[in-house]
Amino acid sequence: MFHVENLFTIYRNLNVFGFPFTYSSTASVVLAAGIAGCICVLTESQAEIRVHLPNKLPLLPVKGPILRTVNLWIHELWKLFFEEKVLLLLLLLAVAQFFISDRETVRYYDYTDFYYRQYMQYLSGEVTEDKKDFILSEKERFATLNRQKQDALLQGKTDYLAEQELYAYEAFELTEQYWEYITENDIGYMVYEPAVDELTAASTQRTDALLAFEAMLFTVLCSTLVFGRDYQLGTDKLCRITFYGKRKAPTIRMVTGMTVNLLILVLVYCPYYKATLQAYGVGTACLYFPADCLRSLDRYGNSITLGTYFLLLSVIRFLFMNLTGLVVYAISQKLRSIIHTIILGCTLFMLPFGMIMLSDSLASFFFLYSPMLGNYLLTSPLAVVIIFVSAMLALTAWLVRLSVDVFCR
C-alpha cells in the first residue's frame, strides 16, 4: 500500500555560472524585468497629438476580408491588443505561469504526513463497505502491533518490524479522526484535505496573497493600457466628437477590459489549481464532492459541491478585478498619465497583498481586499458576505456610470 519511492524527490534548478537558481525565483526575476521593460517602452516617447483629416477612411494594414473594415469593434480590439501591447502582457503572464506552476511538488514534513497521504489516496472518494472494513482491519492491526511491542519490551527485547510499522500509527490516528467526522455527519465522501485546503487557504493566506499580487499587477497594467492611452494623448476629446466615439467606444473598452480580466483570472489561478491537485495526486473528481467533506467548510453542509465553491470564489475575484479596472479607469481620467496611473494603481491594489505575504495577521486589517484571499471572505458571517458583495456590485455600477458620464461630457 505504501510507496516509499515518493519520499525521494528531485531538486530542480537552473545552473547559472555554477550557482543554483530555482525556476520560481528565475521566472519572477524575468517577469519583473519584462514588465519594467514594457513600462519603459510605453512611457519613453513623449505624447504628441497630430490631428489631420485623412483622404480615406483608416483601414488596418493587414489584408483580408475580415480585417479590412471600418468596424469600430475590430479597430478598437486591434489597437488595444496589438498597438497597446495588451496581448504581449497576457503572453508574458502565460509563460511565467507555465514555469512557476509546472514545478509544483509535494512537500512531506515527516513520516506522518507521508503515510497520511497514502491512507487518503486509498480512501478518497465515496464511502463504501470495503473502506469501512479497511479502517476496522487497520485498527486491529495496530492494536496487535502495540501488544507485540509491549510484550517485547517486557522481555527486554525489541521488535524492529513492529516499531517500523508503528511509524504509520499517528497517520492512521489522523485518518481515523477524519473518518469519524465523515461518518458522524453522514457526508459520504472523503478527500485528501491538505491538498484542497491549500487551494482554499484554510491555514495560511500567503499563497493566495501571492496569486492576488500577481493578478492585481496585470489587472492594473492591462487596465491602464486599455483606458489610459487616449487620456494621456488627449485623443479622448476627438473621440467625443462623434456619436459612436462618445457612446460606443467606452462600452467597447469596458467589455474588452472585462474580457482581459477574465483571461488574467484564468491564467493566474487555473494552472496553480491544476498543478496542486496533480502534485498531491488528487483528481478533478473531488470537485463533485460536497463542500463539507472539508472540515474547514463544514458550515456549507452538502448544499454546494467543492466545484461550486471554487466557482463562487472565482466570481467574487472576477468582480473585484473588474472593480479594480474601473478604479484604474477613473484614475486615468483624472491623472492623464500612464506611468502615474500605474504607480498609483499598484500602490492601491498591490501593496496590501505584499504586506499580507509578510504576515497573515494583516489579512484582517486589509479586509476590503479579502475577495482575492481564498475563503477568507466566505468563512465570515453570512450577513457580512452578502453586505460586502452587494456593496462591491453597487460600487461597480456607480463607477461604470460615473466613468461613462465623464467621458461623454
Report on the structure:
The protein has 409 residues and is mainly alpha-helical. It has 2 domains: 6-106 and 197-408, no CATH class; 111-196, no CATH class. It is built from 16 helices and 4 strands. The protein has helices at 23-43, 72-83, 86-101, 111-123, 129-154, 160-165, 169-184, 193-199, 206-227, 229-233, 236-239, 243-279, 306-335, 338-349, 351-358, 382-408, and strands at residues 14-16, 19-21, 125-126, 189-190. It has a two-stranded antiparallel sheet. Strand 1 (14-16) and strand 2 (19-21) form a beta hairpin. Helix 2 crosses helix 12.
What characteristics describe this protein?
4 strands, mainly alpha, 2% strand, 16 helices, 409 residues, two-stranded antiparallel ribbon, 2 domains, elongated
